[in-house]
Amino acid sequence: MSVAIKSTPGSLSRRRLWGLAQGLLTLTLTLFGLLLITFLLSALSPVDRVLQIVGDHASTATYEQVKQQLGLDRPLPVQFWRYLERLAHGDLGIASATGQPVLQDLLHAFPATLELATLALLIGATLGILFGVLCARFAGGKLDISVRFITLLGNSVPIFWLGLLMLLLFYARLQWSAGPGRLDDIYQYSVESKTGFALIDTWLSGDSGAVRNALAHLVLPVCLLAYYSLASITRLTRSACLSELNKEYITLARAKGAGEMRIMLCHVLPNISGTLLTVIALAYTSMLEGAVLTETVFSWPGIGRYLTTALFAGDTTAIMGGTLLIGLCFVLINNLTDLLVRSLDPRTRLR
C-alpha cells in the first residue's frame, strides 16, 4: 500500500530557500568564470599592452618601468587578484584608443546599444509571437508558407548585406529615411545628452524636429534587428504551439466546443509562456552582443562599434571591458528569465 507524502509549509520554505541559494551560487560561479576567462584571454593575447603605451622606439628601461607599473611582471594569479581589486573599485583601466577610462567609454556607448536592441526586441517579439500563433493556427496554409519563407530569409541573408541594401535603397535612392548615425549634425551638438538615449534626450530638449530626426535615424537599424529577431521568435513560437496543440487537454477543449483562437489565446499561449520568455531573452542577449555588424554599417555609436574600433586598434583593455559588460548582461538576463519562468509556470517552482 502506497502512502502519499504531503509537503508541509516548512519543507516548501526550505526547498525554496535551498533553490535560491543554489541560484545565487550558480550566478556567483558563472560571474567568476566570466571574469577568469576574460582575464586569461587578455593575458594570453599576443598584443603587447606595454608596447602600445610606450611606443616602438622606447628604451628598454622605459619599457620595463611601465611593465612594472602595470603589474605585468608579476605571476598571473597575482595579476588576476589585482584585476579583481580594481574591478571592485570600478576601475576597468584606460583605453589606449581614446585615452579615457574604459568604464566611462562603456557608459557612453552602452545606452545607444540598449536603445537600439530594446526597440528592435519590442517590435520583433510582438510580431514574432503574432505570426507564430497565426502560422500554427493555419498550419500548411498560404499564410503559414509565406511567413515561413520570409523568416527563412531572415536567418539566411547576412545582416550586413541587408543593412547596406537598406541604406542604398531607402536612404541613397529613395531618401525616405535618415542616414547613418543617431542624429544629424545640426542636432548632434545642440541636444544635451542627459540619459544617453537619443529619443529621451531629444524629447527632454523640447525640440520636436530633433525627436523626429532621432526617430528617422532609428527606423532602419531597428527594423533590421527586429526582422532577424522576428525570424527566430516566429519559428520557435510556431513549433511550440504545434507541439501544444497535439496534447490531450486541447482535444478535450475542442470537444467542449471551444473555438480555435480561444484555445490558442486561453490555453496554448499561457502554457508556452516559459518557452516564449526564454526565446525572447535569447534574442535580446544576441542583439546586445551581436549588433556589431549593424552598428558598424549604420555608424551607430554603441558597444558593437566601440569593440570593433578597439579590436582594430589592438586595445585589449577596451576589448576586455566591453566583453565583460556583454557577458554580465547575458548572465543577468538569463538568470532573470529563469526567475520569471519559475514565477509564471507552477510546474517549475519546486524543481
Features:
351 residues; mainly alpha; MetI-like fold; 16 helices; dipeptide transmembrane transporter activity; transmembrane helix; transport
Compile the SSE list and pairings.
Blueprint: H1 9-43, H2 49-54, H3 60-70, H4 76-88, H5 102-137, H6 142-156, H7 159-173, H8 185-188, H9 198-205, H10 208-245, H11 248-255, H12 260-271, H13 273-290, H14 292-297, H15 303-313, H16 316-344
Helix pairs in contact: 1-4, 1-16, 5-6, 5-10, 5-13, 6-10, 7-10, 9-10, 10-13, 13-16, 15-16
Membrane topology: Multi-pass membrane protein
Subcellular location: Cell inner membrane; Cell membrane
Keywords: Cell inner membrane, Cell membrane, Membrane, Transmembrane, Transmembrane helix, Transport
The overall number of domains is 2
Largest sheet: none
Distance between the termini: 27 Å
The CATH top-level class label of the largest domain: Mainly Alpha
Strand content: under 5%
Helices, by number, come to 16
- Rg (C-alpha, Å): 25 Å
Give the CA-based shape: globular
**CATH topology title of the largest domain:** MetI-like fold
Number of strands: 0
Order of helices and strands: HHHHHHHHHHHHHHHH
Helix amount:
over 70%
Low-confidence stretches: 1-5
Mean of residue pLDDT? 82
Q: Architecture of the largest domain, CATH level 2?
A: Orthogonal Bundle
Which class do the helix and strand fractions yield? mainly alpha
Q: CATH homologous superfamily of the largest domain, by name? A: MetI-like
Keywords: Cell inner membrane, Cell membrane, Membrane, Transmembrane, Transmembrane helix, Transport
Protein name: Peptide ABC transporter permease
Membrane topology: Multi-pass membrane protein
Transmembrane segments: 20-41, 116-140, 152-172, 214-230, 263-284, 318-341
